[in-house]
């Protein structure tokens, strides 16, 4: 019994001794340097030169909201839109626990927002914001919520 164990040990040990070690470069290639030799600006310039000007990731491969379209709202228009949204009362009703988009009071608030947003009030609000320089929700009056219908 001992001879079988010794023979098995001898064969195993002989295989280990005769095995050659292979440098890692032969299995995976030359190592990649961990420190770049190019500066950040050189890398960015190379990237910008190789990428087309209008290259964007297709929407089906993206995560998150789509890119902003050119020709969007100006800052004053966005602030005016927010002010009118708050003035219509949508800022208070949208985050309530009992929010129901089919409730009559919510529909009335949406109708009021649409009327303000597409009427002369929007133009007046943009002019007021551009005239003051700030205007972020400064005069937005939040209407109290109407009773449920």
UniProtKB/TrEMBL annotation:
UniProt region (Disordered), positions on chain: 53-72
Superkingdom field: Bacteria
N-terminal signal peptide: 1-19
Keywords, sorted A to Z: Signal
Protein name: DUF4148 domain-containing protein
């Amino acid at each position: 019994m001992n001879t079988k164990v010794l023979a098995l040990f001898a064969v195993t040990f002989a295989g280990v001794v005769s095995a050659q070690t292979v440098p890692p470069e032969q299995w995976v290639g030359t190592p990649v340097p961990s420190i770049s030799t190019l500066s950040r600006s050189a890398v960015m310039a190379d990237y910008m030169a190789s990428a087309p000007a209008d290259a964007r990731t297709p929407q089906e491969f993206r995560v998150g909201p789509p890119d902003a379209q050119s020709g969007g709202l100006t800052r004053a228009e966005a602030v005016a839109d927010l002010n009118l949204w708050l003035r219509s009362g949508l800022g208070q009703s949208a985050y309530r626990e009992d929010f129901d988009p089919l409730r009559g009071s919510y529909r009335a608030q949406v109708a009021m927002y649409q009327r303000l947003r597409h009427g002369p009030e929007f133009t007046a609000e943009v002019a007021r914001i551009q005239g003051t320089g700030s205007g972020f929700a400064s005069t937005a009056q939040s209407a109290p919520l109407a009773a449920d219908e």
